[in-house]
Amino acid sequence: MTPDNIGPIAREIAQWIDLTTRGNDCVTLQQIIDLVYDKATSDQESARVCSLLCRQLTGKIPAKFRRPGDRDYEGGPVFRNYLLNKCLREAESIRSKIDSATQGPEESGATEILSGDEEDALSIAHQCGYAAVHFIGELVVVGVLANDDAFHCLNSIVTEYEIEYKAPSDQQARFVCAFLLTVGPHLHRANDNVNKRMNPYITFVKRVDFASRSARTAALVEKFSQMQRDGWPAAA
To answer: Which residues cross the membrane (predicted)?
Structure first.
């Protein structure tokens, strides 16, 4: 799948959904979203292409869906709502996995070394988190998700309390940098509401512990810092 063939693929998917959906059954739509999300978070290059596919699908999904117990909705908004719910569920799951993998050492208050299985689980959760925030950012860039939707998803991984009061861990700095680097250049910085939402995250990244960050995180923070030096985005 490439940007050049997204249009035909979106039409085929929409036609397939139209043929396979009966009554108030949105199972097929959810299956499509699951597949697109999995592909989008499999690698960084796929995130942008899949976000463009989602934008196409938002305009092509047949307008005949009914959410159980609710009124009729147009196909596009139903797709967007299902996609947003998928992103939120995955973000909450990632946060839960990170918390579970680090719960033991945190509760003991000691510098306990994680077991091999715990390290693997934590590494996978971090990779999923990084991929998730990048895809969510791309969905904002192409206009599928609103700014508030994206921040809501991000706050399911890195809480507002942590953003406001704590220094970021190595991985949290990566998550926030990935998000800011993706969406930042496309947001209207002259908008006071956007500034109000962005500035706490910018400040959060600046509180990173330079002595303990990894080379990968250091590269992201440096890229973000360079963007600031070039004039975007400047915290109020």
So the answer is: none
Alpha-helical segments (H) within 109-190: 116-141, 147-157, 160-165, 170-183
CATH number attached to the domain at 1-145: 1.25.40.180
User: Alpha helix (H) ranges present in the chain?
Assistant: 6-20, 27-40, 44-60, 75-108, 116-141, 147-157, 160-165, 170-183, 192-206, 215-229
Q: How far apart are CA 144 and CA 81, in angstroms?
A: 10
Q: Are 216 and 227 in contact (CB under 8 A)?
A: no
Token look-up 């070394």 returns: 113
pLDDT digit string (tens) for the chain, length 236 residues: 777 788 888 888 887 777 766 555 567 788 889 999 999 998 878 899 999 999 998 887 766 655 555 555 566 788 888 899 999 998 888 888 777 766 654 544 444 555 566 666 667 777 877 888 889 989 988 999 988 888 888 888 888 898 888 888 888 888 888 888 888 777 665 566 777 777 888 888 888 877 777 888 888 888 887 877 776 654 43
The residue ranges of every structural domain in the chain are 1-145, 158-236
Q: What is the pTM of this model?
A: 0.79
